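Researcher: Re-running this chain for the archive, since the previous output was lost when a drive failed. Same request as before.
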Amino acid sequence: MDATSLGELRPDDPHQIGRYRIEAKIGEGGMGAVYLGRDPEERPVAVKVVRAELAGDKTFLARFHDEAANAQRVASFCTAQVLEHGEDLGLAYMVTEYIDGPSLLKHVSDKGALSPGMLHGVAVGVAAALVAIHSSGLVHRDLKPSNVLLSISGPRVIDFGIARALDMASAHTRTGQVVGTPGWIAPEQITTQQVTPAVDVFAWGCLVAFAASGRNPFGQGSFQIMAARAVHADPEIGDLPPSLSGLVQAALRKDPAQRPSARDLLLALVGGTGEATVTNELGETWTSPPGGDPGVTSRDVSGAAPAPPPPEPTRPAPEPPRPVPELPPEPRTRPAVERHTVPPTEREVLPPLPPARGGGTSRRTTFLASAAAGLLVAGIVAGAVYLANRPSGDARNTGAESAAFPTAPMLVRIDTAGGWPTSCSADIGLFKPADKSVKTLVSGPSCDILPERSPDGKRIAFSRRGDTTGQAWVMNADGSGAEKVTGILRGTRVTWSPDGTRLAYMDEKQGVRQLFAITLQGHAVTQLTNDDSVKDDPMWSSTGKLVFWSKRDGGDEQLYTMDPDRPGGTWTRLTKDGVRAVDPEWSPDGSKIAFVRGPATGSAIWVMNADGSGAHAVTSGGGRDMDPAWSPDGRWLAYVRGPVADPVIHAVRANGAGDRVVTPAGRVFGHPNW
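Model: Regenerated structure tokens:
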């Protein structure tokens, strides 16, 4: 890095943040200032320090640290790794890997549109970064050319995991404003709809179109003009290569549900031509910023390439990069931090080295650089394909990105009068999202709630809530043959054993909530727990485990599993961060658990693996998201959003994409069970 591009520290700048010595100022952005620092081993890092007014906002700080912790889980495929976050001197900070190289914005501004090979490399690299980010449950929200750095090891995406915190601050301090950059934010961000990974796919389309032409697909203008074009106008994507044109057009669709996922983009980019073809093509054409690329030419409006530039001085070939590690990423021997987004005037490139003997570019140097780039792209492709095709056992990639919306009907609670949950008049019904039709299965003056379909689909269990007591009932799938099974704790749910012969439920014994199981034939009861903790929400998996929440270890509700065939046996704690976790729901194959995480007034739907690993959000939260339910194929989740008395059922892909309202206006449904 050229030291002359860094700003000197001012008297009010910190000289030490946490364990990092601050050497210079890199720049400033919407969050605060960014500094070049050194860790105790003298390795360079970038330290991002939050603005003082934001540091005093408790809501922002909580979200900032939560999102920074999530960002630390992101695999370092084409991203800048988040290393640490904390607070010091009354300031919040985040430390990230230092990436030396010009931004895509500066490179295109200085040198013009990218060559076809380098353009494909940027498209692949940024798509791979988005797969890594989305697989960790994050959405970038502010992807743009200044947040993509062209390092010697390829394109690297920076500044992920903080825009959501800024969005939260905006909601509290800058009502009506949108966090994002005109020309790169999706229509749903402008119209303040739910933010999903699809907003990053839209930004990817804008970014690739810009890299190919040097122009934003929605032109130039004020925020209002750019926003109106993004919402209403068709993008101008220019003369893109055939391998990218269709993907960019799909990424820029107005409806987020109609856009491909990052995984779809990646598989199309690296799978359509074959890994060997992509590797060879990019290995020959990828540049090695920040030293410039004599092969990149800018195109005029007619599409003709200008005369070749004069030869550049010879530079030593870069060393081949390390292979991309599998998750979790192995510790780097020299952790460094990305360069933060700063104005082009503050981002300089390294000066060229003196020319080699003879004054021309060495063929050997060109060959070595090309070979190193080929190894780089092979690593990117291999790592990206690994992320895109990760086994379904990893909750961060469910394979659901391209799943069509299910046609299966869902069981629901139908509120026949207002007042829930203080008073209750509710039936059990069958709702078909495809045609919005509703069929009541059991009706009457009673309060019937929490329907659960049996494993074979032939029966339905539900809870009947009385004024002071509760009952577990079972009926046939068509609503006939309803009969009471046993008394249960008022307002709690029942759950089926994998073979459909037993129900698990909550009841009280000597004033303490305990888990029980009952056989449907003979009604033999087994007490499963005998401790004194508060607990609820049992759910039986297809593999035979019970999951439930308990306050056994103090604090808020946490999720545990146990073997119901070993009553009183050992529990396994799944959630360990102390944040409230309730309403667990097993996926159909028993490999994942969806659950509600966060305070009751600001909860979100999360998904984790059966062992508690890989936990990540699939809804944005900020309101009240609850009652998750898996689709029969395990690729979608239904859930309830909004006030308890006036809920709305949504559905979302298991990767967080394609969120949509399912139930029609004017009808109040709850407790979905797909």
